[in-house]
């Protein structure tokens, strides 16, 4: 799914704060704070995770999973190609 580090990096790339992400995803600010404070893969209600991933997708973030091909391997985030 998504890691806490990916969430923080995605927000940094797009310049949005936790409150804005929460609003775009339709979840509470404490939910985003809790997700980002966790270690490793974010755990939670699948519907909530999907809302956050969708919100990040809508602002132009592409998540790179651990099994996806990337130049140096590993998880990450990048901006979608225009």
* Architecture per CATH nomenclature, i.e. the level-2 architecture: Orthogonal Bundle
Number of strands: 2
Helix vs. strand class: mainly alpha
Overall mean pLDDT score? 91
Domain module tally:
1
Which overall shape is indicated by the principal axes computed on the Cα atoms?
Answer: globular
The first-level CATH class is given as Mainly Alpha
Question: Which H/E pattern describes the elements?
Answer: HHHHEE
Main sheet specs: 2 strands, antiparallel
Low-confidence stretches: none
Rounded radius of gyration (Å): 12 Å
Beta content: 5-15%
Question: Under CATH, the topology is which?
Answer: 434 Repressor (Amino-terminal Domain)
Would you write up a description of this structure?
The model has no long low-confidence stretch (mean pLDDT 91). The protein contains 4 helices and 2 strands, in the order H-H-H-H-E-E. It starts with a helix and ends with a strand. The protein has a two-stranded antiparallel sheet. The chain has helices spanning 4-14, 18-25, 29-37, 46-58; strands at 61-64, 76-79. The protein has a single domain (4-79), classed as Orthogonal Bundle (434 Repressor (Amino-terminal Domain)), CATH 1.10.260. With 82 residues, it is mainly α. Helix 2 crosses helix 3 and helix 2 (18-25) packs across helix 4. 21% of the residues are buried.
């Amino acid at each position: 799914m998504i890691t806490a580090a990916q969430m923080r990096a995605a927000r940094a790339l797009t310049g949005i704060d936790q409150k804005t992400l929460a609003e775009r995803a339709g979840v509470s600010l404490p939910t985003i704070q809790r997700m980002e404070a966790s270690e490793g893969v974010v755990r939670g209600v699948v519907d909530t995770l999907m809302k956050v991933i969708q919100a990040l997708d809508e602002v132009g973030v592409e998540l790179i999973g651990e099994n996806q091909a990337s130049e140096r391997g590993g998880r990450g985030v990048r901006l979608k190609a225009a």
